[in-house]
Structures are given as structure tokens and as C-alpha cells.
Amino acid sequence: MRRRTGPLGGGTPGGGTGSFGKRRTGPLDAGTPGRSAGSFRKRRTGLPASCTPVRGTGSFRNRTGLLGAAVLAGALALSGCDRGGDTDLGLALSTLNNPFFVAVREGAQAEADRRGLHINITDAQNDPMQQINQMETFTSQDVKAAIINPVDSDAAVPAVGVANRADVPVISLDRGVNGGRVGTAIASDNVAGGRLAAKTLAESLGGKGKVAFLEGQPGTSAARERGQGFEEGIKAYPGIEVVARQPADFDRAKGMDVMSNMLQVHRDIGGVFAANDEMALGAAKSLGARAGKDVKIVAFDGTPEGVAAVRGKTLTATVAQQPRLLGRQAVTQALKAARGERLPQQVKVPVVLVTGKNAAEFDG
């Protein structure tokens, strides 16, 4: 057999259509947040001959026959032994019709490539049922760990259950899951970002005025947490009145429509907080020449278009996430989960405020 070089035996990065000829060895657990992977049943009891772990996963030399100790089997299962170009990790993204998640994909793919891993990245097109099907595909490919960026935090529970029943560790990315066994949740610090957005918007208005809030997709932890942070932060400015709030589902076209409807009732709005750049850009289009001048707009994400709009003074600021870092962290934590390492309950990635003063430093 040919020998792989990656820590999970990565084949050609970016694929994910093959299926394993042999099942993984050693216990792999979806895990309980904050705990190491548990002791699920072993998938097989022996390994092919002449299988040598890569550096850092063990110190075994070539062997023949069966290895009785589960710990040796588990080490070799993640060592780089050939398994015919199989998929190591699965990443189920909620959508790729959003530049933020395109950047997440790029970060995850880059980290997988760096580690020599074979990752299958899918697009659910904002359909929770597709994420269930994608998890079933991942388990049929015998992935060592699965990453899910939920379309909806509640609707993702059955998808996580698919992986749980197959003893595949699960990591959540950007949005949490309201059930099932998830090893760790990786996300930006959305609550802190919401507070920062409130402070920035209020100060841009001199501490007084009427503002509107374009909320994200209901049912997602990101929308809930950004809203929580914004509400907490705006309380510090009694001169600011939130006169309108409505979900626009993180969508640019909906952001434009919602903003237009709000302006029909509240022509004197002086500020807008949009829970992502796409909605903010939609709101700016609705506002036309007023955007960034008569009406201050603070957004969230730090996508290339969002940062460009800050440079162009259409947006006052955007709270920038680090999507490529989120993608890289997801792959790193998934690898740890596959190895049975102890995981933190949460991994919070810090946010950064982008304004006209520092926008030139950001590429989005």
C-alpha cells in the first residue's frame, strides 16, 4: 500500500466523493462539550501490514498482523496509513451565497491542505434538510469528524444526530446547535460584537437619535447573540431610541426591502444597525445618497464589500469577523476531536472594528 503523509491520511484536498474501503480504528466520539472524546465501540480490530504513523502521532515501526491494543489501533488510524483516497473531514456550510461563508470555506480548505487532509465541503443553500443529507454522506464516507455551520440552530439537531449515531465527532461553526452531542462550538464573539456595534452607532449620532435594527435570520445563534449584544450596549445611551426592528435573514435583497418598508413609517431614522454586511449593503441601497451621511450605518462581518463600503463612507463601520480564521480553527478542532483529545466547550474568535480610520488595513 502507498503511504500518506497527512495526520489523518489525507488524500487529494478538496474532494470528498470517495467511500472508505475500511472503517476507522479506535474510539471516536462526538463528545460532550468540555470533555474528551468518549469510548465508542471500535470499528475494526486489525490494521494492514507495514503501516507507519507519521511524525507526531506515534513512534511505531513497521508491523505485520493484528494489533490487539486499541490505543495502537487508534493511533495508526489517524497516522497517515493509506485508505484509498478517502475523505477525512466533512464541512457542511449553510450557504455559499454569502462572501463571509466563501471566506470560511477558503480558510478551512487552506488548513486542510496544510495538514494534508482530504475535506468534503458542501453547500446546504440555506436548506436544513440538505444538511441532514450531507451528514449522511459524510458518515457513508467514514469521515473522522464532521463540522456543521447550521442553517438553523434547532433544525440542525437531526443532522447532528446522524453523526452522533455513526460515532462521528461533531464541531459547530459560527452558529450553535440546540441539541445533540457537539464537541465544541467555534464562533466569533457575537455578543461583544453587538455591544461594540451599539457603542459605535450611538457615538456616531452624538448619543441621541432614532435608529433601526435589521436582525439576522431567526433561529440562528449568531442573530440572537448579536441582537443580545446590541440591546445590552444601546441601553448605555438613553438618548438613542430603537424605533424599528425586523429580520432580514442576513440577505442583501431582503435588507433593502425591509429598510424601504421602515422608511415608509420612520422617515426620520438617523442610524441603522444591520447584523451583517449583506443586509447593511441592501439598506444602503434603499437609502441612496442618505447612506453614510444623513443616516449612519453600522454593520457586522467585515466582508470585502463591507470594508470597501466603509472606505467609501457608505457604511460608518463594520464589526469584522475573521472568517478564514474561523475556518482554520474548525479544521484544527475537528482534528483534535478525531484524535480523542479534550476540547474546550467554546472557541471564541475575537472581532475587530473597521472604520474609515483603519479600513485600509483590511482586505475583508
TrEMBL record:
SUPFAM superfamilies membership: Periplasmic binding protein-like I
- Location(s), subcellular: Cell envelope
GO MF term list: carbohydrate binding
The source's superkingdom equals Bacteria
Q: Which Pfam families does this entry report, sorted A to Z?
A: Peripla_BP_4
InterPro entries, per this entry? Peripla_BP_I, SBP_2_dom
| Keywords annotated in UniProt | Signal
Q: What is its main location?
A: other
Record domain Periplasmic binding protein: where: 90-341
Instruction: Give the residue ranges for region: Disordered.
Output: 1-55
Q: Tell whether Lyase is among the UniProt keywords.
A: no
Q: What is the residue range of the signal peptide feature?
A: none
What's the protein name? Transporter
- Which species? Streptomyces paromomycinus
